[in-house]
Amino acid sequence: MDVGAGFGAGGKPGGLAGLAARLRALLADRSDTAVAQKVAGSAFLIRVVNAGIAFASQILLARWMGQTEYGVYVYVWTWVLLLGGLTSLGLASAPQRFIPEYSESGELKLLRGFLLGSRVMAMAISTSIAVLGLGGIWLFAEHLESWTVIPLYLALVCVPMYVLTDVQDGIARSHNWIDVALAPAYFVRPLLILALLGALSYEQFAPTATTAMAATVIATWATSLAQLLMLGRRLKRKVPPGPRAYAPKTWMKVSLPIFMVEGFYLLLAYTDVLILSAFHPPHDVAVYYAAVKVMSLVAFVSFSVSAAVAHRFTEYAVAGDHARLATMVRDAARWTFWPSLAGCAILLAVGWPILWLFGSDFTEGYQLLYIIAVGLLARSVVGPLERLLNMLGQQNICASVYGGAFALNVALCFTLVPDYGMTGAAIATSITQVAESVILFWITRRRLGLGALPWGRGPAPHPNSARIATGDAVTDMLALPMPTGDELVAPMARAEPVRFELTTIEALAKHRAAWEDLSSRALQRNVFCEADFAIAARHLKSVRNVRLAVVWDALAPERLLGVVPVVSYRIMPGLSGQTSAHWAYFGALGAPMVDRERASLAIEGLLDGLSEMGQSLFLFRFLPESGPTADAVRAAVAFTGRSLVRIESHGRAMLRSNETAEGYLTASLSAKKLKELRRQFRRLADDGPTSWRESRSPEDVAAALERFLELEAAGWKGESRSAMRFHEDQLQFVRELFAGRAGKGEARVLELFVGEKLVSAGLVLTSGRQAWFYKVAYDEGLSRCSPGVQLTLELTRRMLDDPGIDAVDSTAIANHPMIDHVWRERLVLGDWMIALSPGAARLLPLAARTERARRAARLKARNLYHRLKDRSR
Description:
Blueprint: H1 15-28, H2 32-86, H3 95-105, H4 108-140, H5 146-174, H6 178-202, H7 209-238, H8 248-279, H9 282-319, H10 322-358, H11 366-382, H12 385-391, H13 395-448, E1 467-468, H14 473-479, E2 498-503, H15 505-509, H16 512-520, H17 531-537, E3 547-553, E4 560-572, E5 575-580, E6 593-594, H18 599-612, E7 617-624, H19 628-640, E8 643-655, H20 661-668, H21 671-684, E9 690-695, H22 698-713, H23 716-719, H24 728-743, E10 747-754, E11 757-767, E12 770-778, H25 787-801, E13 807-809, E14 825-835, H26 838-872
Parallel strand pairs: 1-8, 5-7, 12-13
Antiparallel strand pairs: 2-3, 3-4, 4-5, 4-6, 7-14, 8-13, 8-14, 9-10, 10-11, 11-12
Helix pairs in contact: 2-5, 2-6, 2-7, 2-8, 2-9, 3-4, 3-5, 3-9, 4-5, 5-6, 5-7, 6-7, 8-13, 9-10, 9-11, 10-11, 11-13, 12-13, 14-26, 17-24, 18-19, 22-24
Pfam families: Acetyltransf_6, Polysacc_synt
Protein name: GNAT family N-acetyltransferase
Main location: membrane
């Protein structure tokens, strides 16, 4: 027996045994790249099977109906595809943006709400538009060709379920359930149409477009409902049951730009057919559509790769993993182009006999295949860049590209189609695809520093690309190569002039009206950046070195665009910088306050202004890792070509729910725990009647604040002399702060009394529809009755019942032993370091590593101090 049989050089498996071994290894590999490859492969196989079924059905339709009726069917089905793609308003692609984001951040209520809400919204919108369309056909039927009226009625009946299938497709793809995503629409539906056509033909139904559309309606509704049941079963196992939260404004804010992109993409896909049908008879439409269907096999490659990688783009961007993001983009381009090139070659070789299967007259469209192939190959060269731009928050620029491409395509079609017919439509579409691909590639390189040609190694590291590092210092060093020489270019210029200054609290207080005006139009409210807080904080001894980094509109001198409190910061010799201030532990949120209309511009002005002052680094402390402010920071970093690295992050308790108060508390705490807390509350009444008092007027808040200060000083903080009562600067600060906020109705104090004795109190600040549970104090002599917890439960009830409050930030430490068990939502905050100059970008990984080491050493020293202190007692 030949012991070497089945092995290649070096003892590696070869032949069938090697292929089997490689297949087993691929199936066992759980890496993201392997999963993406398997998903792409599955999607491609489904689309290949679909292509076979679709071709069979199109050939049968063409043979059964003849060219004229087939041309009518193509015209009507094109309207279904166009309206079905448009009437979801982008909600079909939104799952690949929101599901990874909510899953990564642990926002399960929003995840559950999105899974239901996205489908309900899409169905409601599409049904409304379909009803309007049915009414329009009824009103204007006499102006339409008689042979189109009934098929158009049937087409509109298809639209809502077509849209539901699209949205469920996006949800399933986001969970890598490619079978649930694609099989119903691309496998079951065409098979069912074939079966129904066979039955109708057997029953001697007339071979018309109306008959074919009737079969299509039945198949569309059946497969959509079956997919709904399959997806529901999968989601029950994947997503734990619980309450839902809905954010339709946020969803639509993201979906609408995606809708613009996809809308223009769909218009690009079908404009040629619609314009051709306006100038030429159904015969030409049928031949042209058959040629497009033949070459659409190549587009399946791009579709399959997009289905596999779109949600990976979001995952890596949210995680800040630029290295894996860049690798995925490069791999996606390769996976798209080379199979597309091979597919074009094969189809051009066998295109004539395939067209002949439709009917002998269809072969006149063979020369169109070469023209169509040019556009398809141009599109495959750059990979799924439109998905990348959409998933990374660049929907608007992507929509602009597709809008321009659509306008170009319409202009070319109207120029070429009347005289050149099918050939003119093919030339117009290919020219448009080439132009669109070039522009998409240029924009992606320019704005994100991403994108790679399939035969290249990808873009070189460049200061003009936003480099988002991982949380690991070694990975950071590898993921953020150092630019040298000619790569050191200036950031992109801003379109609008701004003016930056680093000023004192007292100086900006002279512009208090402008400061408060900015608060009213802030992208996200942050009370710790507002005038009342900062001006009161000037009394604090430990924040006398705090300055305010301010960005003004240069064209409107009294219009503020951004404010953030900062302090000097130096992590390494030669690297001076600033960090957002946390007001000596009195400020729990470091998000900048920026104009909602020009948020990215304000942050760009901040970064550029600090850089021009000679600062090297900026450290955002306690910056929310998701939401509009985080998006604006990332966009500004990307636009100015700077580098960004996360130092550390943590989550703290937050209250944000649409549930009733009792429902929320019952879900948060066990029945046993709630029963025990009620028993403890009754025990408080042993010493006198219990009562709640909530103060909101300036006079009541001032009196309640004094009681709070006394209660705080009576506890452990009084023993350690850390209570505010023992520090004159802190007393001035908190009194002025609450007096100012109470005067605006944006402060309240909740107190629990037993008789006339105060046993617990909580200070709350509000700004707009956001609240902060700022401080709490309680009588430690009654700790057996949990007065602090009792106050938190009552505050929870009142905040959830307050229609003017959307969310309450606990301002607590991470893993707080009390409030984490009551408030289930989490606000994830991160410390993000930004290199302000190209020189600092070279040292950013080392600076991040040094900062983490410094924090770790400080933590160890503090723990050691407390251990020694405990032993000495």
